[in-house]
Specification:
The chain is of the alpha+beta class. Helix content is about 30%, strand content about 20%.
């Protein structure tokens, strides 16, 4: 029997909760970004306390989550963008995460 693959939204929600539970993480958001060929790739942004390291978060998440739930890209931001209602602006997060990573 084939196992159903969870939707991108479910994976993003589970990942966000896992990331928020890590020490030093203040807030997190995950989005599914389109990739060439028609697929989706999970990417995430978070805010952290001073001294928290994104690579440490990635390592901790790899121990807790199945590989398909760990985003290809996890980016630390000073603040998550908010919409006029004070909620995380997911469209703005997507634009930030689509931008090329600095070298």
């Amino acid at each position: 029997m084939r196992r159903a693959t969870p939707s991108a939204g479910v994976v993003a929600t589970v990942f966000e909760a896992a990331l928020r539970h890590l020490p030093g993480v203040l807030d997190a958001v995950a989005v599914a970004l389109p990739v060439p060929g028609g697929g989706l790739e999970l990417a995430a942004a978070h805010t952290s306390a001073p001294g928290a390291r994104t690579e440490d978060h990635r390592t901790a998440l790899r121990l807790r989550l199945p590989p398909y739930m760990v985003p290809a890209r996890i980016t630390a931001l000073a603040a998550l963008p908010l919409n006029p209602n004070g909620k995380v602006d997911r469209a703005a997060v997507e634009r930030l995460l689509r931008a090329p990573e600095p070298s």
